UniProtKB/TrEMBL annotation:
HAMAP family: NAD_kinase. Belongs to the NAD kinase family. It is an enzyme of class 2 (transferase). GO terms for biological process: NAD+ metabolic process; NADP+ biosynthetic process. The keyword Kinase applies. It catalyses: NAD(+) + ATP = ADP + NADP(+) + H(+). This is NAD(+) kinase. Its EC number is 2.7.1.23.
Amino acid sequence: MAPSKFNSAGEGTFSGPMADNGLFNANSLLNSEKAVQELLERSPLMETDDHLIEFSEALRTVAKALRKAAEGKAASQAEAAEWKRKFELERTRNLQLEHKGQSPVECNGHNNKRSRILSPQATEQSERCCGTNGICSHEILQDRDIDSISQMASKKYARKAPFKLSWCCNGEHSDRHKHDVVSFEKGNITTAERSSRQISLKWESQPQTVLILTKPNSISVRILCFEMVRWLREHKGLHIYVEPRVRSELLTESDYYNFVHTWKDDKEIMLLHTKVDLVVTLGGDGTVLWAASMFKGPVPPLVPFSLGSLGFMTPFHSEHYKECLDSVLKGPISITLRHRLQCHVIRDAARNEYETEEPILVLNEVTIDRGISSYLTNLECYCDSSFVTCVQGDGLILSTTSGSTAYSLAAGGSMVHPQVPGILFTPICPHSLSFRPLIFPEYVTIRIQVPFNSRGHAWASFDGKDRKQLAAGDALVCSMAPWPVPTACQADSTNDFLRSIHDGLHWNLRKTQSFDGPRDT
Ligand SMILES: NC(=O)c1ccc[n+]([C@@H]2O[C@H](COP(=O)([O-])OP(=O)(O)OC[C@H]3O[C@@H](n4cnc5c(N)ncnc54)[C@H](O)[C@@H]3O)[C@@H](O)[C@H]2O)c1
Ligand SMILES: Nc1ncnc2c1ncn2[C@@H]1O[C@H](COP(=O)(O)OP(=O)(O)OP(=O)(O)O)[C@@H](O)[C@H]1O
């Protein structure tokens, strides 16, 4: 019987009596007399074991040597990379100083033969980076040998292909170089600004006019409004605007409130931002959304007082309204620039785009859903000129980062800090297991198209209001609006955001694990 190459466990065995590594194939040896003979003639088993031990020892030594060599190589590569990095840093810094017309900073090393002029700033820098007795990269990198490396490097640097960066806006290339955002001096791309950072508002002259917007049908809001109007007039001497409804309420209360201004029509509302220094809201998040919706263009700074149940965007407590308003009117105040989305509904029936519908600005989100239709929505989504996906489900939310804690969150979108510029793309009940939410950068334009073969209509709603029907062939085009909503912070943007997700949503609240129990020894 021919010996099998595999044993019953599926492991490979050797077909010959003696395998390459010196191990025996027991089956073939037992089945062959010749093999037994051979075995007897060969060295005893004991001796073979000794050889094996010797061989494995030798292998271990070789492996050790190889490992040592590899470790040594990795260490020297890391060291070389570190020196290269320091060298590049130093060279860039010197080039920048040369560019500004200053001589490069030199360190005052103890054994340095070259004469070096040290500015107090440079000495301070040297002491900070290496201590008075240490060796620092500045010192070593400016020795003669390194100078020649530097010359070589600058020769190499001169061969680097030059380039320019330009910015593309709405499909058109602009030659304007955004040096304020990204610099690209001599082939090195560096980001200067990554986002709008924490913004502080400082009044250059005393605010004169305040608009107070209130949640309707709330007694506590009405009482606070009466009180606040009187205080702002008597203690701050401010002009006060309120909605026509509120003015009637004030006048019903007393003729005293005759000084309060209001408006008659939409035309006057359009001009409000030119008259009003500050907007105060008394209500919940809905009142902030309401206030934002009144301004179709620039929005004055908003001071939102919390008189609702949740209050993600309302960090000020109404009990302390005098202290809060005092400090806001004095300034400076930290503000959160809340980006808005600008939405256009484009009707297939219209002769040209933007013909009939005014753009709508949203602070939270625009939602396209199936409304009362019982059919699955079918929405084709494009980002600039690229096809994104087809939404088949209950609908889609295009949200700002401020709105990330509202409907988008309920639909599974991520929470995003409101200062992050971006557009959240969150499906509502998608009929697909793999449809995860996306976040697009702020410069894109998103187009949601109801296909011509759609079974039902879709409905768009803007910050939960103003529902508009979208028929087959209609589209909604959405991009970042140029007018954000500046809201005053209680502390700062990040602190307020974290406080709202902790207090409002009880985010990641869990009982702390007790100290006693199993632990690592
Ligand atoms: N399933 C949901 O979670 C759901 C459904 C519909 C609408 N909404 C949200 O309601 C908003 C309209 O608010 P409203 O007060 O006029 O209606 P509303 O009175 O129905 O209140 C909706 C709730 O959403 C909260 N909210 C609003 N904006 C928020 C934000 N940016 N972050 C966290 N929570 C926020 C409000 O405080 C309120 O508790 C819509 O823009 C939408 O985001 C949520
Ligand atoms: N000045 C206003 N005029 C008309 N409607 C308003 C005005 N202010 C707020 N609203 C609407 O009233 C509704 C409730 O407002 P808001 O969310 O501020 O109060 P709330 O529901 O008590 O607060 P919360 O949602 O935190 O519980 C919202 O739909 C909002 O759009």
